[in-house]
Amino acid sequence: MKDRIKMIMESQHMTQQTFAQFIQISPASLSSIFTGRTKPTLAIAEAIKSKLPTLSTDWLLFGSGPMYMTGKSDSESTTEKTPSTPQELMVDFEEASNVVTTPPANQSNSQGVDSTRNNNHNIITKIIDNKQRKIVEIRVFYDDSTWETFVPQKS
């Protein structure tokens, strides 16, 4: 499966770092898969499939059939468009970066700021009054089985 993930990355012209960001997993997880330290999990397969819906699940999991789905059932064809050119299979990062998220209509930014301010008033500061401690001696041990003792000067 790791070879098929590499093939997907190559078909999308992505580096390991950008592909990990694209499917929203940590780059370290992807690196661990490629080095053979861990095996791909169902969560990673689902993350890839959610970002690339035209990718064949059978191909991704088992290596059987074509990489991308060509025929769809009637219910799938009404919700998804089949790419007709290789460019449509590519990810357009400019389009993705132009997407702006907006807060829900029933919640405004000013309410969020006010609630944060109110939470700050509920913080209790506890000062611990301990007697100040003084350093009596410091010992440094060396690898040749010797040590030195440092004692602060008395004032």
Automatic annotation (TrEMBL):
Residues 5-60 form the HTH cro/C1-type domain. InterPro entries: Cro/C1-type_HTH, Lambda_DNA-bd_dom_sf. It holds the Pfam family HTH_3. PROSITE patterns: HTH_CROC1. GO terms for molecular function: DNA binding. Keywords: DNA-binding. This is DNA-binding helix-turn-helix protein. It comes from Segatella salivae DSM 15606. The lineage of its organism: Bacteria, Pseudomonadati, Bacteroidota, Bacteroidia, Bacteroidales.
